[in-house]
Amino acid sequence: MVVGNEHGLHARPAARLVAVVNGFDAAVTLTDLDTGKGPVDAGSLSMVATLNAQQGHRLRVGASGPQADEALAAVEALAADNFGDAVVQKAAVALAGGSGLDVAIGPAVLSGAEVSLDSYVAGDNEQARLDTAVETAAAELRTLRDTTDAHGAIFDAHLALLTDRKLLDEIRATLVDGTSAPVAWKQTYDALATTFEALDDPYQRERAQDVRAVRDRVLRLLVGVTEEPPADGILVVPELDAATAATLDATKVAGVAVRAAGTTGHGVIVARSRGIPLIAGIGDVEVPVGEMVAFDARAGSFEVAPDADAVRATIAERLGERERAVAEASEPAITRDGKHLHVLVNVGVVQDAVEARGADGSGLVRTEVLFGEWRAAPTVGEQVDAFRAIARALDGKPITIRTWDVGGDKPLPFLPQDREPNPFLGERGIRVFRRRPELLRDQLDAIRRTAAETPVHVMFPMVTTADEVAWALEELGPRDNLEVGIMVEVPAAALRVHTLARDLDFVSIGTNDLTQYTTAADRTNAAVAPLADGLDPAVLQLISHVVQNAGVRVAVCGDLASDPQAAVLLAALGVTELSAIGPQVPLVKAALRQTDLSQIDTAAALAARDAAQVRGLL
Question: Which pLDDT value is given to residue 176?
Answer without folding.
Answer: 87
